[in-house]
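REQUEST ID: PR-0412
SUBMITTED BY: lab tech R.K.
PRIORITY: routine
TASK: structure prediction, single protein chain
INPUT:
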Amino acid sequence: MATEPADSLIATRRKPSFPVGDGLRSYLRRYKRDRELSITYERLRDFHEVIPLADADGRPTLWDTVIYSAEEMPALNEALKQVYALLKVDGDLSVVQHLYVDRVDFCTFGNSTPFRIRIVNAFNDNQDYFYLKKADASRVYGLELEHLLSPNRLNFITHGATLVEEHVAGVPGDIFIEHWLGRRPELKPVRVAKELVKFNERCFVRLLGDMRAYNFVFVVTPDFEEAQLRLRAMDFDQQSYNGRLKFYLPQFFKENAALALFCAKHLRQETAHQYQREEQTLILQRANLASDRLSLLLHEMSHDPIAPIEKVHRLRTSLAEHYGCNDYLRCESMGALVRENLESIRRHVGRAVVPELVPE
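STATUS: complete
OUTPUT:
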């Protein structure tokens, strides 16, 4: 394991945005992820006024509601409906005529400075959301790896410098810690701890970093006796960029300390090993099912400079030590490291390497 303490996992300078290159663009077109859009991120930037957005309790949020000129709004709303139709029903406008755009919000926090569009069903007031962001190759790789290697499926579209993402519904991790953790009898502690271990492993294998509590959600599904639970990432900006190994292990962030301690309280180390191995097996099964597509994605990722080479070298040294495998030392890209992680868990059947459950 790397030796830096958990306290070192703090926010650093903003990660640069990497353009979607020709190779990745070709991959996205092949799998219908790159489509012509009727609106762009830059067009949404042309708003005239902002109004701070409060939550249901009247507390300020990180979002502002943006206002456009009256002349612009009809065409803008129609264009946003077309994008939503493309995202949800492959562009079939006949089934979304009863929808309308209720609000457009803008957030200056984080790398992607996203727009969030609230769209409403006029017949029953049901709401849905989607996002327009600046297209960043790191984020696109993260979205696609989530789609291929996790139990979750994601819809997103790129076009030029614009990225459209669907909303990931769930209870934000920080809210879950404050109001749900250990307080809901329908959520069995062992089941919560199990999902935390599995989520931790998914992030580590596919090198998704910065999974602090506010960057993932808990999806709670009522069952006939007790609720089922799953953790889902909702921010993919820090896909394979940082050089610190622990940056890819959610358990080591101070924002997640309560979750790590909860796991340590409710799981024996042997049981955690079992759950980690279960998730590794599922990752390999998903990789095998999507082997051709995953191979193409990792090929493009291996030739895409989405992280400085010194970060790649630092991370490969830590991974070689962690897995006891010098094959990592031949890797010269983040894509190669993700591929080597998959090979490592294939080699470690029956003798998985598990980080300690509690923060240092």
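NOTES: The radius of gyration is 21 Å.
REVIEWED BY: pending
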